[in-house]
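Board notes (copied after class):
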Amino acid sequence: MSRQVSLDDWERRVDRLVNLVPYVALAVSLGLTIGVSSFWPQAPLPGTIALSAFAAAWMLWNVTLHPEWEHRQVLMGVYFFVLIAVIGALVVRAPLYGFFSFTGYLHAVYALRGRLRLVGVGVTAIICALSQVGGVGTLATATGAVIFLVVMLFNIGVAGTMAFFSWVTQEQSERRKRMIGELAESNAKLEAAMAENAGLHAQLLAQAREAGVLDERARMAGEIHDTIAQGLTGIITQLEAAGQVADERLPGGAPTSYAPGEPLPGGAPRSYAPAQQRRHLEAAVRLARESLSEARRSVRNLQPEPLDGVPLPDALTDVARRWSELHQLSARVTTTGTARPMHPEIEGTLLRTAQEALANVAKHAGATRVGLTLSYMEDQVTLDVRDDGKGFDPCALPPAAGEHTGGFGLVAMRQRLARVAGRLEIESEPGGGTAVSASVPAIAVGEPA
């Protein structure tokens, strides 16, 4: 920034010099010419004074009063060569106008561009050399002509060199100005881009927070469905079964709304704890405790309780055993491939999928046997759950089955698998049983999820 300020100051000083020095030099030249006119023969003064007045008016109009014309190259070219012609005529009439002839150097730099500037400097050097050797009369002799030639070449060499370096300096200055302007424009664009990026970043953060909230809601919905909802369903089933056992013990379909200890019709006391009824009640209590434990683990975002320190195949076997005891159906677990510890999220997803698939079999399939196959492959792990139930038509399911129809299970399984880049496939046909296949990436423990 300081370099730019100093450059501007220098240009302002040059402009003041261009505006002031020519008038001073013209006045000095005219004064000296008038002063020596009595003893130095020269052209008549009236013509010299008239040319001086024209030169002053020409500079005043084109430079001093209209500085904005500086960048009009054609107009400035005409201005300079008319001015240098007037200066040449004044030097021919009175060599003392050599003081004013230096104006050609200043205005060549001011008015001309490119190589034309060197031409203007060369012409000015010739006129200055003519004034330095005493005017046109000196050229009448050979010695005078040689002296003029030497002085002219010296002037052209010095002035041309200075003009060349001035030209190069100005070109570099203009190049720097353009670069500074481009840099300022780039900075403005960069600031605008940074402001836009900041807005997009804030928007992305808001979307990320919203996505996190929605993902957590979906996770909690799945956990509630897989733990509390399934547990409550099992509890209701067991309590209903216990009630049916009590109904079956009443003779002749007597009403069941007797108070504890109240004798039944016929005088027989009512019994509330047969072995079958006790089994259903104990199962209901166990399901309630398990559901409560799983609900607490879901809130803390921990892995399912069956996987707590237990390999996935063993956890699946335990889940299938409990399910078989609860529903009095056969469930067999088979493991293929080399079993190895997977990422907790992967194992938890497969376990929850197995629990949901078994819950669907119990509620809808009417099956007598269920087979679970856990397959470990090189790049993925699959879980297949097959039953011999009544089956259904998968194409008859709505695209988002379950959100408003009570069948949240398939949606929950798909969403849970999607969170770990897995997929769910269902094969079924009426009367032909159902096969549910879940595939997930084989991400081992310790690998980045």
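Comment from the instructor: The CA atoms of residues 219 and 331 lie 28 Å apart. Residues 2-140 form one domain.
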